[in-house]
């Protein structure tokens, strides 16, 4: 594993946001949702996430997610993804979301 410096880590904008809306994303190559997330002072942003195996749309509303906000926007099918939702692959390769233990203000940074 390659080591990084503290300044490298500080460049990654890992922020918390609350899921406001979840839509199906049938145009995606792999099953995915479109997520609308409130990042407080960083605004409301959209992304897609391949998290359909472990989460229903209803499970995600109001849930806080941890995301990388400073990647470039990425076009996925006919949709522009504005951030990357973080998670870990389970034993079958399905994504389990990274989570905060308690509610924190939207836009909070991982420190």
UniProtKB/TrEMBL annotation:
Source species, domain of life: Bacteria
Domain TRNA-binding: 8-111
Gene3D superfamilies xref list: Nucleic acid-binding proteins
Pfam families: tRNA_bind
GO molecular function, one term: tRNA binding
PROSITE patterns, alphabetized: TRBD
UniProt cross-references to SUPFAM superfamilies, sorted A to Z: Nucleic acid-binding proteins
Keyword annotations from UniProtKB, A to Z: RNA-binding, tRNA-binding
Protein name stated in the entry: tRNA-binding protein
UniProt organism field: Daejeonella rubra
């Amino acid at each position: 594993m390659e080591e990084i410096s503290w300044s490298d880590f500080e460049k990654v904008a890992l922020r918390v946001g609350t899921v406001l809306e979840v839509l199906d994303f049938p145009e995606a190559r792999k099953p995915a949702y479109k997520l609308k997330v409130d990042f407080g002072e960083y605004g409301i942003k959209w992304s897609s996430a391949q998290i359909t195996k472990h989460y229903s749309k209803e499970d995600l509303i109001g849930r806080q997610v941890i995301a990388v906000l400073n990647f470039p926007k990425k076009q996925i099918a006919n949709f522009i993804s504005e951030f990357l939702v973080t998670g870990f692959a389970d034993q079958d390769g399905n994504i389990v979301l990274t989570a905060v233990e308690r509610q924190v203000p939207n836009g909070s940074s991982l420190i």
